[in-house]
Amino acid sequence: VQLQASGGGSVQPGGSLRLSCVASGFSLNRYTIGWFRQSTGEEREQIACIASNTGSDGSATYAGSVRGRFTISRDDAGNSAYLQMNSLKSEDTAVYYCATDSVRGRGTLVTVSS
């Protein structure tokens, strides 16, 4: 049972990245999926989550810090979730990871710097 985030990297302010979260060993379709981030010296922040399409409405919610810039989506057939990040700022620099209520994936580093 595992979640693996990928797609991080270095980007200039104003740029974009798309993070992927792939599940193995279980099916994501019944779970709410969250994207979290943690930067050095800061507390973990939940930035987005998307409800299940099975038993719920598949709706997405966002932290104020990313609303309007980031978009979370899910592909249940592919057992995956995504985080499209646009208009990146230096303060978005962090390790990003995905999680359900019981499984947390390994993170991917996003660095936003000129």
Describe this protein's structure.
There is one protein chain. By secondary structure, this protein is mostly beta strands. Helix content is 0%, strand content 47%. The chain is built from no helices and 10 strands. The strands form 2 sheets. A 6-stranded mixed β-sheet has the order 2-10-9-4-5-6, with no helix packed on it. The protein is globular. The model has no long low-confidence stretch (mean pLDDT 95).
Helix fraction bin: under 10%
Q: Helix and strand succession?
A: EEEEEEEEEE
Uncertain runs are none
Main pleated-sheet profile: 6 strands, mixed
The residue-averaged pLDDT reads: 95
N-C termini distance: 38 Å
Oligomer: single chain
Rg, Å, rounded: 13 Å
What is the beta-strand fraction?
Answer: over 45%
Going across the major beta sheet, what is the strand order?
Answer: 2-10-9-4-5-6
Instruction: Count every helix, treating DSSP H or I runs of 4 or more residues as helices.
Output: 0
SS content category: mainly beta
The beta-strand count equals 10
Shape: globular
Features:
mainly beta; 114 residues; four-stranded antiparallel beta sheet; 0% helix; globular; single chain
